[in-house]
Amino acid sequence: MSDDHRQSTPRSRVAIIGGGIAGLSAAMALSRIASRDPQSPRFEVILLESRKATGGRAGSFTDPVSGATADYCQHVAMGCCTNFIDLIDEAGLTDCFTRYDELSFYHPATGISPFRANRFLPAPLHLNSALSGLRYLTWRQKLSVRRGLWSLMRTSEADLADVTAARWLADHGQDAETRQRFWDVILVSALGDVPQRVSMAAARKVMIDGFASVQGASDVWVPNEPLSQIFGERLISVLRKRGVDVRLQTSVRNIQTLEQSSSSPRARVTVGDGECLDVDHVILATSWRAASRLIDAITVRDEPETVGSWQRSLADTLGSVLQSPITGLHLWFDRSLTTHRHVVMVGTTAHWLFHHGLDPQNPAAGHYHQIVISGRHRLSDEPKEILIDQVIDELRQAFPNANDAVLLNSRVVTDPAAVYSVTPAFDTQRPVTQTPLPWLHLAGDYVQTGWPGTMEGATISGRLAAESVLGQFNDDGTPAAFSCVLPGLQRRWLARLCIRD
Ligand SMILES: Cc1cc2nc3c(=O)[nH]c(=O)nc-3n(C[C@H](O)[C@H](O)[C@H](O)COP(=O)(O)OP(=O)(O)OC[C@H]3O[C@@H](n4cnc5c(N)ncnc54)[C@H](O)[C@@H]3O)c2cc1C
């Protein structure tokens, strides 16, 4: 396509519904293509977000008592999240994250054990010393974990689609205590639900891609600014500079097909105040619940039967999704409880402790600590005060500094639908990006990406939707020339020999 031709070609109008990480990732991909490649198609991208700020589940709130800004729940990424890390790099936001190559595991019986992969040994041998360092595991348990990891490396993901993690682990010699002390600790945090419900294929993704396959895959990326700053302000300013029309507090009420003609817009998006936007493409990047409602209400002019059966089957699939809660306990003390920035807590109600210290913007709020508990737990139905008391008891036992610490303020935030459960049934039925409506593309962490419900999954889904728009755009016979999704980290020779694909 020549520059002259490009100038004269009408711009394709794309509405992205939802400004969570999936929608933001799609907007970044389309605006990057439009701004960097003179041969590329031209887009007018409109991002529609119903809330006051973008970021979706990766957002923050202002505590009414102290005025402090805190994330609804602490989010972390891992070194294996190549697309998410690339997204923040592209947006110039790498300074918003700190990368850690060591984890600290706490157990009441043994205190803190460092978990650090060996930087000189090739994967998967690099994990050996890290495992040896977990003092709360007996040598038998460590041997059992190594055997389990080896079996997992020798089993392809496709062979694990039908089985839950709990079943597979029990069948592969992992006794209840080894599961509780090792596998469950990692899987519940990463997948947001208990191994009795999640598929072993999803668990393999975490254990193999996230730990065993490549040096650096298990590094932890922790935001050092509120998520609202990262995804609600800084990323939006990048998008606006690239010409994306970001509209906040703009809730989409319905989507309709228009009369088909090659030169006209193909869909109409109606927003809350009744304004209608006629567009060539819609990327639906909401949660699975909002997507189900909007898709169900689409009225179709052509091929109503094909589309109707797809609508019904998608409604069944999304209607059967099991969801899992995640709880964040936000605790402000008069002092820091520990020098560790984060600690994985084993054998306690708390799963992770994140320690942020004093906020320089608001030092009077106190030293901020956040406890994360993924999934339902034994105090889920108890009053919040009981949960706070229990967790503070655990912190006092774990960290001597906590004994004299005074709790200045606390808040418990539970998102009951934080993540969907990657059950074997749902994992095999997850919807794909393309739909029978050529102008409609799905994004969101629930879409088939090979990843569970994470920021990486959401980023990939947005990039896949951008690729799908581009593929359509080139339907005139030109092959789709743009690839937006990055591959995972490249395995080296020993990992390639050991790990079956
Ligand atoms: C408590 C908690 C902890 C988590 N921890 C981690 C973690 O540590 N690491 C990790 O990788 N992931 C974590 N996740 C998962 C991660 O947050 C999600 O996978 C990811 O943010 C999903 O992004 P999304 O864009 O797919 O969906 P969402 O974030 O749900 O975004 C959808 C957006 O669509 C908007 N919307 C909905 N309906 C409409 C409409 N009609 N019109 C316009 N806009 C609409 C919503 O307001 C929302 O902004 C956590 C999630 C939660 C809730």
TrEMBL record:
All copies of domain Amine oxidase, residue ranges: 21-470
Gene transcribed to yield this protein: hpnE
Documented EC number(s): 1.17.8.1
Pfam families per the UniProt record, alphabetical: Amino_oxidase
SUPFAM superfamilies from the UniProt entry: FAD/NAD(P)-binding domain
Swiss-Prot/TrEMBL cofactor(s): FAD
Lineage, broadest ranks: Bacteria, Pseudomonadati, Planctomycetota, Planctomycetia, Pirellulales
Transmembrane portions of the chain: 12-34
GO MF annotation, one: oxidoreductase activity
Gene source species: Aporhodopirellula aestuarii
Domain of life: Bacteria
Keywords tagged on the record: Membrane, Oxidoreductase, Transmembrane, Transmembrane helix
UniProt-recorded name of the protein: Hydroxysqualene dehydroxylase HpnE
